[in-house]
Amino acid sequence: MPESRNGPHVDTMRRGGGIRSGLRGCFSLRNSEIASLIDREAWDDLVEYVDTHWVELTHSHREALVSALNAMPASVRASNARFAAAHEYANFIPARGPARPTRYQHAPGKEAGLLDTLAKLTSQSAGARMVGRFADAVAAAEAALRLLRESPAGATRAIRPVIPDLRLQWAISLQLGARLPEAIRAYERAYDEAIRHDNTRIAVEAAGSLAFDFAFLGMPTQAREWLSRVPDYSHDGSDTVHEMPALAAALLAAHELDLDRANGILASSPTVSSETWAMRFYTESFVSTLAGNTESFPAKLLALRAAHPAALAAAGLNHALLAIASAGAALTASDATRTETAFSDLDAVHAGTSTGTREVLRAWRAVSTDALPVALADASGPLSEGTATPGVAAELRAVMAVIHLRNDHLDDAASHFRVCLEIVAAERLFDVLHRFSPEELARLEDLSGQRLPDEIRDALATVPPRARRSPRPAVHLTPRERAVLRHLLDGRSRADIAQAEGLSQNTIKTQTASLYRKLNVAHREGAVRAVLAAPELLR
């Protein structure tokens, strides 16, 4: 089974806008003492030893802790609420490395208590989300949260040490199920309780996940605040918890147009978890799109989809992230065929999941084709409702500024630009100004009387302006041409294709010539390259 996001030891820390990952020395415990106590069956002494060194054992010596808990007779564990609650979950979390031998399956006792029920719901939730059943994962997480909320204080007191671990799993299910407001509340509670119970690694992932979610939602100030709260945590590079702080930091660096720093963060934080692949792809594509590197995007996306079960990309946050990344890259590439397909996928994303980004991309697409009334309609909704996050509001103000500039409504253009620049400077969303052509930006500066701060101007100078290419015409293949193209990609000869399709070789020759002409290629290899660049040709 794939691993859920809750593995062993890693730290990714942000200080002063940077990321710092490091290997630190851990508190040294004499594991031989635990082995000696177990050999002598000195259970009272073992209980005292583990209780005294609980924090160090859970942080840096998980193997020793598991050995101690497993060796204790059940009656001894039962006499200590912390040990009883932690026993099975400690076996679930690996001591090192990214993989678990099995997914967490709690074995309830004769009378299912609160922990038994919570563990069962947590297992159901994690199992469902790993196979793409995000609605089921969310339902189980919500049931667990409701049960815990309604349980008396006496019942929860005994299991408090493991509640942060459980809360993190519920938050992940809500996040991947695209229930971001609820996920944020769950992560915040997991963080608070993890800090209270000295569970540093859970606090690292909770804070990092909050930072990523706020960065994705267009709320960079909150994202930076949560990155600053990521605790120091020793790690060996194989833990899963470091990844979310790193992805959040890379996104924030990209917003500041510091693409070298963003790429450096991503390079120093390789993928460990099997559940963050769409978040990482979204972040990497965000950075590469700003740099203008979009030609390889379709092939990368095709390979990514092939590497994961289709259900994982068909719903929830993963679907939204891939659709938004695809639309952004296609828009930058000015490829009509890719743009048509990408925006069709984007339209299928639930409005609550895209958090205004869908309207932003639609509006910029309309601007790119001079469909200014359409752009105005797309941009006006979220602004008039007053629900836009700072990132979305800045983008839509930029759209409005361009619309009014092209319509020669200069006062309105200047007004929208002033508001846009105010948000950009306060939130460090320098990438929003990258949407303007250099000529538009210079004109808006003059009209508004607002000069760009030197820091923003210098940041804009480090990235190439967005190419203002004429959109390539969309390629429309007939069903028969698509069938022939699939055969060509498989390396079949004209005779083989004719036999498979029940057509004459002359017809196949004509269809091949027609599709080559539409793809602007002269041979089979060119057709292969065209499909790698635009897989939607086969749809």
Automatic annotation (TrEMBL):
Cross-referenced PROSITE patterns: HTH_LUXR_2
Coiled coil (UniProt feature): none
A single BP term in Gene Ontology: regulation of DNA-templated transcription
GO terms for MF: DNA binding
InterPro entries for the chain: Sig_transdc_resp-reg_C-effctor, TPR-like_helical_dom_sf, Tscrpt_reg_LuxR_C, WH-like_DNA-bd_sf
Residue span(s) of domain HTH luxR-type: 470-535
Alphabetically ordered keywords of this record: DNA-binding, Transcription, Transcription regulation
Membrane spanning residue stretches: none
Name recorded for this polypeptide: DNA-binding response regulator
